Structures are given as structure tokens and as C-alpha cells.
Amino acid sequence: MKKTIYDFTYEQLNTWLMDKGEKSYRTKQIFQWLYRRRITDFAMMSDIKQSLIETFNENFVIDPIKLKQRQASKDGTVKYLFELQDGFLVETVLMQFDYGKSVCVSSQVGCNMGCTFCASGLLKKNRDLSAGEMMAQVMYVQKELDVRDERVSHIVIMGTGEPFDNYDNVMDFLKTVNHDLGLAIGARHLSVSTCGIVPRIKQFAREHVQYNLAISLHAPNDALRSKLMPINQAYPLSELMDALKEYSTLNNRRITLEYILLKDVNDQPEHATQLSKLVKGMNAYVNLIPYNVVDEHGFRAVDVASALKFYDKLMKLGVKSTLRKENGGDIDAACGQLRAKAEGKL
Ligand code: SAH
User: Fold this and answer.
1) Residue of the nearest CA to atom 17 in ligand 1?
2) Which helix H or strand E contains 270, and what residues bound it?
3) Domains of the chain
4) Residues 158-173: pLDDT tens digits?
5) Between the chain's N and C termini, which has fewer beta carbons within 10 Å?
6) Which residues is 69 bridged to in the sheet?
7) How many Cα neighbours within 13 Å face the side chain of 178?
């Protein structure tokens, strides 16, 4: 299996080309071919000499994914199921908002975090995705949008997988997305979401990048959170909150706390009260998310009226929050649903 050339950051490609005796302006040319003109074949690089094109062909592919399935929702959400070169399947979602077009990228094949409400966890992790396999998901969507002269403006790493369990590849991917000669998407339009791997949050805090950090919180006390999310047994809320405060201090950036509303589980008034105590004094806001039901897990979604009640309670307690509207409800847009179905697990 050949690597994809999308795996390289600008600096890595530059080093690779230097080793081959090339001049450094080649790196710029090649990045432009890949990310501006978005070529599908190395032979299209008309200002690159034949011998180098042959070297590329011997060592790399451009596109390491094949479309297996595509579902489009009435609200503009599009869900893609891709096959990787070794046959594994990953999902990607395009979401259309007033502010732009956001691609939700998968970072691993399956996931080992075992969150009890999530469809991704139905399939254990087979392997990490390379930086280029994440990039290829975005490039596929961007090439589709090119026909309409539209562009991907935002990226969230909220597909299948735990990005902080594949830290280096995720950082390389974001670097290329953000690079002026890459996709040039602003750092503040890029978001990483983690279930709360504390050492990686601390490492991320020291990168001093402007990407958004989102934390899947989902419960305001340790007993409940440990039941819903096994990661909490390794890194309880006190450690998580300390790491987040450290991140805020070092970066002066607001953190998003994601909170799925699960009926009769974490949606009671006392949960709102506990949540307000937990986030007090933090530079954070709570994003309330409607639950996308995964039949296997037995959790139920909260109706709109109850969600609004929880939201009002938080607001009264002085917690900044938003209530996210559901996208793609008429397709299998919940994390991991399309793939789990394709693999016969749903
Ligand atoms: N592993 C990372 C990123 C992937 S999950 C993380 O845990 O943050 C992206 C977000 O979707 C997380 O907040 C996750 O908890 C949430 N999620 C998972 N299953 C969901 C479902 N069925 N409905 C709504 N949100 C879900």
C-alpha cells in the first residue's frame, strides 16, 4: 500500500524533496498543484520534470479513498462513506451553516473510548488514520464543491475516532489544512473534539495554536460521567477541569463543552446546577446537543421543550450556552451510524 502524498506537511515534503536533491521552490509548486489546483494525477503537474513525476508515482498515490456510499439530507447535510486502500471504511459529513460549510472528519477506523451512547464505539479501533487520509476526506468534499465554485470553510474533527489518541497525525493534518499554501483555512475555523485525554490536552495547550478545543463533557459529576464515558475513570473531572484551566491560561481561548441531552440521564435540574458549579469561572460555554438515537444503546433523546427548559436553567445560573439544532436527522448522520450499518452492526 503506497502512502498518500497528502501525508506530508509542507516542512516534511520540503525535507523529502531536498533529500532527493531538489530545490525548495519545488515544495511550493507541488503544494499549489495539490491544494490549489487540486490535481488527481501527478502527471498533471505540467511544470514538474518527468523524472520527479515518476518518483512520485513510484512512492505515492494522491487519493487514498474511494466513495462507497453517499447520502444527502434535505437540509444540505451530506454523509460520505469512504473505503481506504486496505478496505477499512470511514465516514465524513458535510454540514451547511449560515456561516459556511463545515466538514466533520474521522480520525480513526473505529474507536476504543467506549462511550456508552456513541455509535462509533460499536466498532473497536482497527487503526489510526494517517494525516493524509484525514486530508483526503476534506479534499474529496472540496473537489465536489469546486464544481459549484464553493469552498470548505470550517473543519471539525468530530467524526469517528478520538483525535487525541492519534495526536501527531491530527496535528500534521491540521497544519496542512491551515498552511497558506495548503487549504489556507484559518485556525479559528478548525476544531478538535476530545473525550478528555488529560495528558494530550496539556500537550495541546503548549502548542499555542489557535484551533478551537471542544470537550465531550456530557455529565456534571464523576459517578455519572464514569458510567457514560470510561475515560473518566482514568481522568476524572477534577483533573480534566484543571487541564482545561491550564489550557485557558496559556492560550486565552474559550473552550466548548459539549453536552448531549440524554432523557432522564443527565437532563434533570440538579444536573444543570452541578454543571454551573463545575464551569464557574472558566472561559467556556456549554453546547447542548440533541442526541441522535443509536438503537443498540437504549438512550433516548430529549424533546425540544425539555431541552429548552434545561437551557433556560443554565442561562439563569449564569452559564453561557447554546442549543444546537439537529442536522441530517433524516439520514444516518450520527457518529458511526453509516459505517456500523454498512458492516452489519446496526
Ligand atoms: N472522540 C471525540 C470526537 C468524536 S465524537 C470526542 O469524544 O469528542 C464527536 C461528538 O459527538 C462528541 O461530543 C460525542 O460525544 C458526540 N456524539 C457521539 N455519539 C452521539 C450521538 N449518537 N448523538 C449526538 N452526539 C453524539
Assistant:
1) 118
2) helix 269-279
3) 3-61 (1.10.150.530), 65-342 (3.20.20.70)
4) 999 999 999 999 999 9
5) N
6) 81
7) 17
